[in-house]
Write a structure and sequence with these properties.
By secondary structure, the chain is of the alpha+beta class. Helices cover 46% and strands 20% of the residues. It contains 15 helices and twelve strands. The protein is globular and about 65 Å long. The protein starts with a helix and ends with a strand.
Length: 427
């Protein structure tokens, strides 16, 4: 549709029901979201005059259980959250994908040049190129597209801004050129391929799948081509808690080597048993051969493997606690996961920069403010980035104020879980 028609539909309230479905907002919240989307459409029309327009979204994600288990084909508990990336986009009739994002350089990708480029590693351009390449390899014929992107997912914060970006590009191209035939799982796999091969980061599939799928999901990656996904009905507010994600102030965007070391060291332990992934190793056999594994893989690798075995086993327990509305049990398991990440996985700070201890300080401050209530743990990849806390509703205002008094205004986000991961808002 024409951008003006899209603006009219937003302003007339024709899209309110879809906005409510995607963002679970009403009243002032809906008005603010409508204004945000209308502003994006207006900027798209200014940047790309004469192009048709549609609106797309991809959620940020939170990892609720299973820290660094997905890349070992283990289990995770994850959710799509209220912070998201949105795009106003349309086909441009050419042979280039062009993306304009607020605060970032413009991206222009030629569809006849979709080979990985090491010069682009770590850039948005590499992700667009990788997503386009994966779609063409699946037999889809892409055309040129123009996108104007806005984000409320802080970059480098542990809420998976790169995965949300990959899913946003995928959802957009899927709608414009693939007839919407690619599933959430396929879009997640495409995003992971782009991140691994084109961006240069050896991530698992959890981030992309949580950004694409929606809601809270228990995922088993034993078969990465067909992960087992079970949605879980979760009412945090009904349990008396709010989910907070706190930015430590240290950016994790340039810590690929630290993440890669976890993957390679866990893989080294698996190799001691003739396996590729720790999920293929019997924990009893690991403990029985511990002296041998220490000699072959090293002590840090052994500790990280211990974390995997313990956290992977915790995920179904977390899911079961949520299913049964045993939220106190859930919080205890979250806390245990945080301890394991700190002592075994060792991802609270980077070995390359031991003076930077922002995550540890953030966790200590959150624990002080919670005063024995709720739970707190490192969130996502770790080393920098964010901390996750479950905060009693009656303490939220004081908790946010206390965190931001030390870390800075806007560092503590009170999030909700949303049922839509990646999707079309209007188009």
């Amino acid at each position: 549709m024409e951008p003006q028609e899209l603006l009219d539909r937003l302003n007339d309230g024709d899209l309110d029901a879809r906005i409510d479905e995607v963002y679970a907002v009403t009243g002032p919240g809906r008005d603010a979201m409508r204004e945000r989307l209308a502003g994006l459409v207006a900027r798209f029309a200014e940047d790309f005059p004469g192009h048709p327009a549609a609106l797309f979204t991809a959620a940020g994600r939170t990892e609720m259980g299973g820290n660094h288990t997905d890349h070992q084909r283990g289990q995770v508990l994850a959710a799509s959250v209220s912070l998201d990336m949105v795009a106003c986009a349309g086909a441009n009739g050419g042979d280039r994908i062009q993306v304009r994002s607020e605060g970032y350089p413009d991206v222009v990708i030629a569809l006849d040049d979709l080979e990985p480029d090491p010069v682009e590693y770590g850039t948005s351009a590499s992700l667009v190129r990788g997503v386009a390449r994966a779609m063409t390899e699946r037999g889809y014929k892409l055309g040129g597209a123009s996108l104007r992107v806005a984000s409320s997912v802080p970059g480098g914060s542990g809420l998976s801004s790169s995965a949300a970006y990959e899913i946003l590009i995928g959802v957009t191209l899927n709608h414009l050129f693939c007839g919407g035939r690619l599933s959430s799982v396929e879009l997640a796999q495409i995003g992971q391929y782009a991140e691994n091969v084109f961006f240069g980061k050896p991530s698992g599939l959890m981030d992309q799948l949580a950004c694409a799928y929606g809601g809270v999901v228990h995922i088993d990656f034993a078969d990465p081509d067909a992960p087992a996904i079970r949605p879980i009905d979760v009412d945090l507010a009904g349990a008396g808690y709010a989910l907070c994600i706190i930015e430590s102030g240290a950016d994790h965007a340039d810590l690929t080597d630290e993440y890669s070391a976890i993957t390679s060291e866990m893989g080294a332990v698996a190799a001691c048993f003739g396996a590729d992934f720790l999920s293929e190793v019997d924990p009893a056999a690991f403990w029985a051969r511990l002296a041998e594994v220490r000699s072959q893989a090293g002590d840090r690798a052994v500790l990280r493997a211990i974390h995997f075995f313990e956290d992977d086993a915790r995920v179904p327990q977390l899911a079961s606690a949520l299913d049964a509305r045993r939220f106190d049990d859930f919080l205890g398991l979250v806390s245990a996961s945080g301890v394991s990440s700190a002592t075994h996985l060792q991802n609270l700070h980077a070995a390359s920069d031991p003076a930077q201890q922002a995550v540890g300080v953030t966790i200590a401050l959150a624990q002080h403010l919670l005063d024995g209530r709720g739970a707190v743990r490192v969130h996502g990849g770790g080393f920098a980035g964010t901390v996750q806390a479950y905060v009693p509703l009656e303490r939220v205002d004081g908790f946010v104020a206390g965190m931001e008094a030390v870390l800075g205004e806007g560092r503590c986000h009170v999030l909700s879980i949303r049922s839509v991961g990646g999707g079309v808002i209007a188009g």
